[in-house]
Amino acid sequence: MPPIPALFTLPIEPKGSIFCTQPSQRVYLLTFDSPPDNRLTPAFCTAFVLALDILDRRFPKGIVVTTSAIPKFYSNGLDYESAVKSKTFFSDVFYPMPTMALINGHAFAGGLMTAMMHDYRFMNPHRGFLCLNEVEFGAPLMPPMSSIFRQKLPSPSTYRTMVLEAKRFNALEALQEGIVDGLGMVPELLNFVEETKLVNKAKSGVYGRLKREMWRETVGYLENHVGGQKRIKEEMEADKGRADEEEKRVADWEHSKGHGVSKL
To answer: What is this structure's pTM?
Structure first.
């Protein structure tokens, strides 16, 4: 089968791109190709948002699917602060067409957050893990980052395991926990799209409005990102103040006893 020609291609500096193909009528496949692992750099975010804008403004309504040309990674996240600082990067949470992440490989941290902002998720059954590993490298979750998991995961215990244990979910586990909606690659995804008639759902013009109300908590945090950052900073300063107070109380107790306590 000959390769499907691209509808358009956008560069991602310094040596990447996002290209859009149409594997089926009104199914728009955005493929990330930003080596080595599709990190959410400012250039990546800018190109992704522009691709969504082009599809919204210049093509008939259908469904937008994202995936990666890099077999090992959907996205390794990492530079997620760049993403969340862009008010429009996570706009696919209320994008006016159905969105689906086709997770072909690992999706870690900001990469998994990006996938969660989509309406649906399909995962390669043979490769990749999903992991929210901020606890392992000491990064707090900003309000919209945490909110999207809290709102979309069906189980509080899955949310706890994901955030506090940094569990790596394989495809079957992700399906069982409701993190993804199905397993497979493009053929299986197209079958799902056909069965659910997703290409027709945006025709009435209210699709984005319905999602905005469904995920009102997350949308609110995205729209008030500066306020959320301020709150996190204030909480971190308060935590430091509490730590100083705790240290003083323990030191006073040790002094009153006349000796210290061995540390583990």
So the answer is: 0.85
**How high does pLDDT run on average in the chain?**
89
The DSSP annotation for the chain comes to: -PPPPPSEEEEETTTEEEEEEEEETTEEEEEEE-TTT----HHHHHHHHHHHHHHHHHS-S-EEEEEESSTTEEE----HHHHHHSTTTTGGGG-SS-EEEEE-SEEETHHHHHHHTSSEEEE-TTS--EE--HHHHT-PPPHHHHHHHHHH-S-HHHHHHHHHH---B-HHHHHHTTSSSEE-SHHHHHHHHHHHTGGGTTTTS-HHHHHHHHTHHHHHHHHTHHHHHHHHHHHHHHHHHHHHHHHHHHHHHHHHHTS-----
Percent over 90 (pLDDT), the chain: 67
